[in-house]
Design a protein that fits this description.
By secondary structure, the protein is of the alpha/beta class. It has a single domain, classed as Class I glutamine amidotransferase (GATase) domain (Rossmann fold), CATH 3.40.50.880. It is built from six helices and twelve strands. The chain has a seven-stranded mixed β-sheet with strand order 2-1-3-4-12-11-10. A hairpin with an 8-residue loop joins strand 7 and strand 8. Helix 1 packs across helix 6. The longest helix is centred in the first third of the chain and has 15 residues. 44% of the residues are buried. The chain binds glutamine. Glutamine (GLN) binds next to helix 5.
């Protein structure tokens, strides 16, 4: 049975757990979803979600609890990892002001690229490979300024990148755990070996 971990240090963990459980059920996978925060439990996940929140705080906690190495190791072992919002900032290799970024994905990210909290918005966007629009929720969202290497841009809003995929890594500016649509979670779970 596969174990899908949701990093549980800060942010909207329970929403991620329940939306991922919904996708697991829909796909009839032999898997379970668990909120994980200790090094020990993180080490044996088969896939990991890094939720949104506040990227500096989240980054600090990841380093404080010695989890950076474990996350880097999961990526090295080709486990699917998805970062949403603050999670995207942490997986990026270039970010202006987050010294805790893990440098795992070939994207340059700009924090709060769409403005502050009151500029949060929802929009129907097109995602590469998805049939029909996807209703995306953006909260103090970062944007992808550029990608390189084999990293592929999957969606954009007003000329700014909002989703990218590089092998088994997926990053999103928006919050897939806040909508009923589970296509993003299904794309992610489809990467499990
Ligand atoms: N703007 C936040 C940051 O830079 C991220 C927002 C979010 O995760 N919803 O950390």
């Amino acid at each position: 049975m596969k174990k899908i971990g949701v990093l549980s240090l800060q942010g909207d963990v329970s929403e991620h757990v329940s939306s991922m459980e919904k996708a697991v059920e829909k796909m009839e996978l032999d898997a379970f979803v668990e909120a994980v925060s200790s090094e020990e439990r993180l080490r044996d996940v088969d896939a990991l979600v890094i939720p949104g929140g506040e990227s500096t705080t989240l980054g600090k906690l990841i380093h404080m609890y010695g989890l950076a190495e474990v996350i880097m190791d999961l990526v090295k072992r080709d486990k699917p990892v998805m970062g949403t919002c603050a999670g995207m900032i942490l997986l990026a290799s270039r970010v202006e002001d987050n010294k805790y970024a893990l440098d795992l994905m070939d994207v340059e990210v700009e924090r709060n690229a769409f403005g502050r909290q009151r500029e949060s918005f929802e929009k129907d966007i097109s995602i590469k490979g998805f049939r029909g629009k996807y209703h995306a929720v953006f909260i103090r969202a970062p944007a992808i300024k550029r990608t390189w290497g084999v990293c592929e841009l999957m969606a954009e809003v007003g000329g700014r990148g909002v989703m990218a995929k590089q092998g088994n890594l997926i990053v999103l500016s928006f919050h897939p755990e806040l909508v009923h649509d589970t296509r993003v979670q299904e794309l992610f779970l489809g990467l499990l070996d």
